[in-house]
Write a structure and sequence with these properties.
The protein is of the alpha+beta class. It has 3 domains: 95 residues, Rossmann fold, CATH 3.40.50; 121 residues, D-amino Acid Aminotransferase, Chain A, domain 1, CATH 3.30.470; 63 residues, ATP-grasp fold, A domain (Dna Ligase, domain 1). It is built from 9 helices and 16 strands. The longest helix has 14 residues. The chain is globular.
Length: 303
């Protein structure tokens, strides 16, 4: 098989592991910087070019598209789909999951557990917005933020009003969510592949930090999840239409709640925490799924 990895940095752990796992299985692996791709959009023969060459012959592509380049990255991925190249995650599913508001609305419609969430741009009544999610303490998020950036814990009503007003002054769209205090600054990352949770870890924020992101100083440990948590993670992945994703859960007093569905989950933390060859599992899944011509959201050639 000839497989392309759409990644801007071939030195990243996840990219290197995928290349290593693919080559171990005899696959022809290529790392392609998605921003250096350019496309010929035509009805008869759509193509993708890279460094002066026509990218042809790929059996599958693995999108590792950063949040900051989602628009262009998904456009390139869509072009590969039009060329009948198998995508591990399809462009429409990635776009769906990257839009935090749309993702929450879709998860809500499917009845999955979520923290109480308010959405606003310039609310006339900030006090009512705060009451809507149960009052302070509460979490305020920039809609466009990633990796814990643009996420603020407001411990008092006054602090919440100040932060909301500051974001309003920036003309920013914000999410206001209830603070799940009982989670204790920890979340659960469930890695879902092909409709199954293949690995799970508990991420604990450093002391005094409510965000559990590993790159912000958090730690990760192997954890045994409950059947309800496993079901929630799988349903979240299915709702987004993603073959591979990281589903972040919090343990609340009313059951697991979904915080985020990540369409390009990092492999380093979960491989080290669980000792599992996640990259190898991904390659085995692609070899099986691509050969069967499967496509979750049926979007090839249709945008």
């Amino acid at each position: 098989m000839k497989i392309g990895i759409l990644s801007r940095n071939p030195k990243l752990y996840s990219t290197r592991r995928l290349v290593e796992a693919g080559e171990k299985r005899g696959f022809d692996m290529h790392v392609v910087d998605v921003l250096r791709c350019y496309m010929n959009i035509t009805s008869m023969k759509p193509t993708v070019h890279y460094k002066g060459q026509d990218l042809v012959g790929f059996d599958a592509v693995i999108p590792r598209i950063g949040a900051s380049v989602t628009f262009y990255g998904t456009a390139v991925l869509r072009q590969f789909e039009m060329m009948n190249v198998y995508p591990l995650n399809e462009s429409v599913a990635i776009s769906r999951s990257r839009d935090k508001l749309r993702a929450l609305q879709l998860l809500s419609r499917k009845g999955l557990g979520l923290p109480v969430t308010g959405f606003a741009h310039r609310p006339d009544d900030v006090d009512d917005l705060i009451k809507m999610v149960g009052g302070a303490p509460l979490v305020i998020k920039l809609l466009e933020g990633t990796q814990g950036i643009g996420v603020v814990l407001a411990e008092t009503k006054g602090a919440a009003e100040s932060v909301i007003e500051a974001f309003m002054g920036m003309q920013a769209n914000i999410l206001v969510q209830e603070f799940i205090k009982e989670a204790g600054g920890a979340d659960i990352r469930c890695l879902v592949l092909g409709g199954k949770v293949v690995a799970a870890m508990k991420r604990q924020g450093k002391e005094g930090e409510f965000r559990s992101n590993i790159h912000r100083g958090g730690s990760a440990n192997l954890i045994r999840i409950t059947p309800e948590e496993r079901s929630t993670a799988v349903r979240a992945a299915t709702t987004m239409g993603l073959n591979l994703c990281g589903v972040d859960l919090l343990r609340s007093n009313h059951g697991p709640v979904v915080m985020e569905v990540n369409s390009s989950p990092g492999l380093e933390g979960i491989e080290r925490a669980t000792g599992k060859d996640i990259a190898g599992m991904i390659m085995d899944f692609i070899a099986k799924d691509a050969s069967q011509g499967k496509s979750k959201t049926k979007t090839r050639g249709r945008g």
